[in-house]
Amino acid sequence: MNDTPIHPFRSYFEDLKIGDSLLTHRRTVGEADIVAFGGISGDYFYMHFDEIAAKDSQFGKRIAHGYFVLSAAAGLFVSPAPGPVLANYGLDALRFIKPVGIGDTIRARLTAKRKTDRNRKDDKGVGQGVVAWDVEVTNQHGELVASYDILTLVAKRS
Amino acid sequence: MNDTPIHPFRSYFEDLKIGDSLLTHRRTVGEADIVAFGGISGDYFYMHFDEIAAKDSQFGKRIAHGYFVLSAAAGLFVSPAPGPVLANYGLDALRFIKPVGIGDTIRARLTAKRKTDRNRKDDKGVGQGVVAWDVEVTNQHGELVASYDILTLVAKRS
Amino acid sequence: MNDTPIHPFRSYFEDLKIGDSLLTHRRTVGEADIVAFGGISGDYFYMHFDEIAAKDSQFGKRIAHGYFVLSAAAGLFVSPAPGPVLANYGLDALRFIKPVGIGDTIRARLTAKRKTDRNRKDDKGVGQGVVAWDVEVTNQHGELVASYDILTLVAKRS
Amino acid sequence: MNDTPIHPFRSYFEDLKIGDSLLTHRRTVGEADIVAFGGISGDYFYMHFDEIAAKDSQFGKRIAHGYFVLSAAAGLFVSPAPGPVLANYGLDALRFIKPVGIGDTIRARLTAKRKTDRNRKDDKGVGQGVVAWDVEVTNQHGELVASYDILTLVAKRS
Amino acid sequence: MNDTPIHPFRSYFEDLKIGDSLLTHRRTVGEADIVAFGGISGDYFYMHFDEIAAKDSQFGKRIAHGYFVLSAAAGLFVSPAPGPVLANYGLDALRFIKPVGIGDTIRARLTAKRKTDRNRKDDKGVGQGVVAWDVEVTNQHGELVASYDILTLVAKRS
Amino acid sequence: MNDTPIHPFRSYFEDLKIGDSLLTHRRTVGEADIVAFGGISGDYFYMHFDEIAAKDSQFGKRIAHGYFVLSAAAGLFVSPAPGPVLANYGLDALRFIKPVGIGDTIRARLTAKRKTDRNRKDDKGVGQGVVAWDVEVTNQHGELVASYDILTLVAKRS
Fold first, then answer.
1. Which of A53, A149, B120, F18 is the most exposed place for a label (fewest CB within 10 A)?
2. Pairwise CA distance, residues A125 & A147, whole Å
3. pTM value?
4. What's the 3-state SS for chain C?
């Protein structure tokens, strides 16, 4: 598994090798993230917004939304610029393994685990393939907080 | 499949029957949602923020983040108040089937599809079970935009 | 005064009894709430944004906007789904009794205090009545932070 | 009633005359305000977020939160800088008279209607009085959208 | 240099004297500002979002975006109401001298340093001049954090 | 002037050549950006928030904050990951040439225009140089909307 900076998620289907991996930069999670994410999602679950109930819960503290962790992880590797990755159209086997609390710092590792050629082209004649990535989100202690596979549609160099 | 208002997602493990279903209220998606979600996630993918590139893409317009659809759907059924549902700890087989554009209105249907007793209690002596829900998010035309299963940890009445 | 979960604010005019009451779940107020509320309202009063002036003030610290407390309290009991409550069209006798600071956790108690039949129907033939609710917002110490009455337009079952 | 720019809300108790009035600048309300206010308040009432249900309602369209109108109006006249107005501690007789929709532009007129001397000083020896203001919020058509009285604690000049 | 409250930035071109100065009220910077500014700008530089990398940097901690400091300073002196200042169309010699960290409180001093008559009127026949302001942003210790000149287009009295 | 993707802003001081240039991806500006930027900055200037006054102004419509354009442009080229660019510590000769309105799409071109070796190392023994970049922000019509130089501190490869 060779560790290239942010490269694999910028590769064309043909250039990508199974095992290509990238480790993203990091993001520290704060209370402001919880408040903003609750607001945009409308998910005001007490584990995120009620310090008293959260203290009394299995986790003993307020935690970030799981879908915030998922979304912020995407923010760590999705390129804003048009490139070979055309879409993230699916996700499998997501498990939230450890809670992410206020002050935790997360990062993600992506590893290309499966390539499937799709023998069709889009309306622009661009060939496409599907790449399945194993994603592992870890915290500042190197502990796994979330694990899942994402399915991306990747363009061919043609 | 009997359609009870928002009830099933408020039920204790014992009371929930396979097939119990709920149809949530709706939410209209706007450009402000895309901007806010891009900001909180850090996901500035061009399909969300670049009208020119989006117009030139397979979808022909800017679309909402898939994880926004997922998160906003959760906001439609997650109860803010402490209740039997203790956590949403996993998600399987998420597929984004149709894009959600500016002005679309989404809602979700949840259906209890599997119950698994966990023969253990938490440190407060509360028995728990796992409930798998089938979630279907649809738009104002009744078209399926996203489909997935969520795994929730649900308390027993004891 | 019988304490039903979130029920009374979901009742039709005929079903609601004077004295029906509900105690909402809680919300912890953070600095992010002050920043976000100042931003959306445009109310940058120094008691919210200037730690130095706030320390030197009667309260000795930055406090949340009173209208944030009012708005967040509404967020604790307003149902997102269409139901019998058609509108909150008025408010009387609002008094901010104690400041809400960063880290405080608030909740609200609503009690139906007055019902007034309106002998008219809306254009859909739905009969309506006015319900006046006494609202008390308290903090984690059970201290009253705000008190007011709200006037809601409530549909009849017909 | 003499119309001074933003002056009266910057006056010391002694200098303020009953009938002093100010007309604020304006603010145009957009969908982004509704989304942001729903998020910060947690009030996701369908009249604000569900275009389909809102179209089918008495108002025929999505409308801004009443408390947003109240909060945005305060943002039009509250001074961010420390001054004679020490606090807005109460509000009476708030009525939402006309809905504020996307694209409407609001402004507020404040008129000093009552002065009450409080024969006490704060711990800094600053004398204080209570000023009751009549507030009228109007839209771009000059129609009254909200009306209420606010109670402010105002410092004396020395 | 005579210190008038917020007056100079509300003066007509003819009334403004070189050396007229104002010291704004203050704003305390919090983590929520960093999160919100990163989101709206899309600038997720690690000095703002990665506590681990920031601790290991020259500054030893997360810091606010420089452009947030610039923007928040403007928020301290820009009048929301239409007035003589028509636009801030340029900026020169901006230097970020000291970082602004979480919990710091900033304020700005503006001093009129140059007036240039523009012998033309806009399409409404309003005469205009250019005023160059020296801006100094300081923190709670009176340390200079940013320094720059802004160029404003200011209306003549008639 | 050779057009490399996003590369120059990721180069070490020694590797960067005068004339190296990059053209960023694009961002479409919406009303939500104006609302969010006004909120975070506290800059509620009527050209951004008052449609009536803005229509009556020189520009004839609401426009985005100049500092939003500056900040969003930075978001188009600043790398979130630690790299050779250590800081953007200064800016010169900023001119807002054309307003950016709702629906406009902006992008930026950076061109390295000056390199200055600083014969000192930071406390980690990393050599540094200063790079001045010419930045031009254009809209969807290729019109220049803002022009300025930024000064960055860039690490040497050593």
1. B120
2. 35
3. 0.95
4. CCECCCCHHHCCHHHCCCCCEEECCCEECCHHHHHHHHHHHCCCCHHHHCHHHHHCCCCCCCECCHHHHHHHHHHHHCCCCCCCEEEEEEEEEEEECCCCECCCEEEEEEEEEEEEEEEEECCCCCEEEEEEEEEEEECCCCCEEEEEEEEEEEECCC
Per-residue pLDDT of chain C (158 residues; tens, 9 = 90+): 344 444 788 999 999 999 999 999 999 999 999 999 999 999 999 999 999 999 999 899 999 999 999 999 999 999 999 999 999 999 999 999 999 999 999 999 999 999 999 887 877 788 999 999 999 999 999 999 999 999 999 999 87
* Closest Cβ–Cβ partner in E72, E86, E148 for F42: E72
CB atoms within 10 A of CB D113: 15
Q: Residue F109: in which H helix or E strand, if any? A: strand F105-121
- Give me the pLDDT at residue B58, please: 86
Here the tokens at position B36 are: 């806010």
Tell me if B98 sits within 8 A of B139, measured CB to CB. Answer: yes
Contact list, F28 vs chain B (CB under 8 Å): 49-52, 62
Do D74 and C40 form a contact (C-beta atoms < 8 A)? no
Which neighbouring-strand residues pair with B91? A94, B150
Average pLDDT over residues A87-107: 98
Q: Tokens for E74, please give them.
A: 């403007």
Burial (0-12, 13-18, 19+ Cβ within 10 Å), D150: buried
CATH no., domain B2-155: 3.10.129.10
With 0-12 CB in 10 A as exposed, 13-18 as middle and 19+ as buried, what is B19? Answer: exposed
Contacts by residues C60-63 (CB-CB < 8 Å, ≥ 24 positions apart): C61/C101, C61/C102, C62/C31, C62/C34, C62/C101, C62/C102, C62/E28, C63/C99, C63/C100, C63/C101
D55 CA to chain E: closest CA distance, Å? 31
Name chain F contacts of C38, Cβ cutoff 8 Å: 39, 42
Q: What is the DSSP string of A19-66?
A: T-EEE---EE--HHHHHHHHHHH----HHHH-HHHHHTSSSSS-B--H
> Chain C closest CA to E116's CA: distance in Å?
33
Q: What is the torsion angle, in degrees rounded to the nearest 10, for the CA atoms of residue B44, residue B47, residue B53 and residue B54? A: -150
Give the mean pLDDT of B106-125: 90
Q: How far is Cα A94 from Cα B71, in angstroms, rounded to an integer?
A: 14
